[in-house]
Amino acid sequence: MKNFDYIRPASISDAIDAAAEPGAAYLAAGTNLLDLMKGGVTRPDRLVDITRLPGLDRIEWLPDGGVRIGAMVRNADLAHDVDFARGFPAVAEALLSGASAQLRNAATVGGNLLQRTRCAYFYDTASACNKREPGTGCDARDGENRLHAVLGWSEGCIATHPSDFCVPLVALDSVAEIEGRSGKREIALEALHRLPGDTPERESVLEPGDLIVALRLPAEARGFSAHARYLKVRERTSYAFAVASAAAALRIEQGVIRDARLALGGVAAKPWRARAAEQYLAGRQGDAVSFFHAAEAALADARPSGNNGFKIELARRIIVRALTLAAAGTPARLPALPASHFSSVSGALHVA
Ligand code: SF4
Fold first, then answer.
1. pLDDT score, position 343
2. Residue 112 Cβ contacting ligand 1 at under 6 Å
3. What would the DSSP string read from start to end of 266-315?
4. Helix (H) or strand (E) holding 190
């Protein structure tokens, strides 16, 4: 284990000053970072512990009907907030489909956004990895890559972003509030993560010292609450990252789709908004033919990055199924196995 400084700032401005130094990293729950440090994958010189900063652990309802979620709110607390789950059911379903109950109790929403890829070569320090060590190559290209990207990948990196939570957030136009050395600013969540290009080590548009302090979901996102689902296919239903997933949200009037939101997970280095599919669906009947063509549009640019061509067809089918489930209506209770294609049976989780 490498020695590092540990700092517990009293204010956000102190935290930003401390984290702006080269080699510094923010520490929240540490559910990903500490694993990376133990494995020697990341070796920060300084940890800036933000768990005691005041005001970051609140869920606040805004006057216009939107919601502001502090970055230190725990995943489980947000998912089990009844008002939140009613207003944004696909987000709650995605949260409950991620990780394990123990991890959801500890993990924070801010940390969820910035978790690292689960590419096995990234975690194996004996492997070549351009993301971990720029310029060394990518052992995933000729290795075990069936779970890697089919959209937006580059010759330098074919890793995927692992978050479930981010997928409906991107579909529903959520915004990240950021504080940094140059003050406060906001970024649409869709623009937070970067595609790999020639610099896969740069995963977001954040600058040194930038701290995500909150997320906002706009009031308009609640307009989809009657027809919103998150569907995830994984290799082990109890606990695994997505092979591919989809968040689908529809606003339906008299049988016609007035507005559609669709985003994919597990297919790219960022949550993937499927705008061409959304545009196709607007004004159409919510039927199998429309959903099939929407899925075709969403995957039009997909190409295998290795032995993973199956993911393209899988993602198409997940989209059709997610849209079908959304059109049928958000269940009064979330399924007993959230986001699982194995269960349409409602459980007793939290929405009365
Ligand atoms: Fe590293 Fe990306 Fe290649 Fe995985 S896919 S080994 S993270 S460069």
1. 62
2. no
3. SSSSS-EE-HHHHHHHTTSB-SHHHHHHHHHHHTTT---SSS-THHHHHH
4. none
Q: Are 226 and 330 in contact (CB under 8 A)?
A: yes
Q: What pLDDT score does 204 carry? A: 98
Do strands 228-234 and 211-217 pair parallel, antiparallel, or not at all (unpaired)?
unpaired
Q: Who contacts 124 (Cβ-Cβ below 8 Å, separation ≥6)?
A: none
Q: What are the residues facing 42 on neighbouring strands?
A: none
Question: Which numbered atom of ligand 1 lies nearest the CA of 159?
Answer: 5
Provide the CATH topology of domain 1-54: 3.30.43
157 within ligand 1 shell (Cβ under 6 A) = yes
Return the closest-CA partner of residue 172 out of 254, 100, 108, 90.
90
- Domain 222-328 fold: Enolase-like; domain 1 (3.30.390)
Residue of the nearest CA to atom 2 in ligand 1? 157
* Ligand 1 atom nearest to CA at 148: 5
322 lines ligand 1 (CB under 6 A): no
Structure confidence at residue 199 (pLDDT): 98
Would you call 143 helix, strand, or coil by DSSP? Answer: coil
Task: Spell out the SS3 assignment of 90-121.
Answer: HHHHHHHHCCCHHHHHHCEHHHHHCCCCCCHH
Spans of the chain below 50 pLDDT: 347-352
pLDDT number for residue 239: 85
Q: Which pLDDT score is estimated for 347?
A: 47
| Cα distance between residue 25 and residue 17, in whole Å | 12
Residue type, 39: G
CB 89 within 8 A of CB 4: no
Domain ranges of the chain: 1-54, 222-328
Give the Å distance between the CA of 143 and the centre of ligand 1: 10
The pTM of this model reads 0.96
The C-alpha atoms of residue 247 and residue 288 are separated, in whole angstroms, by 17
- E strand or H helix that includes residue 47: strand 46-49
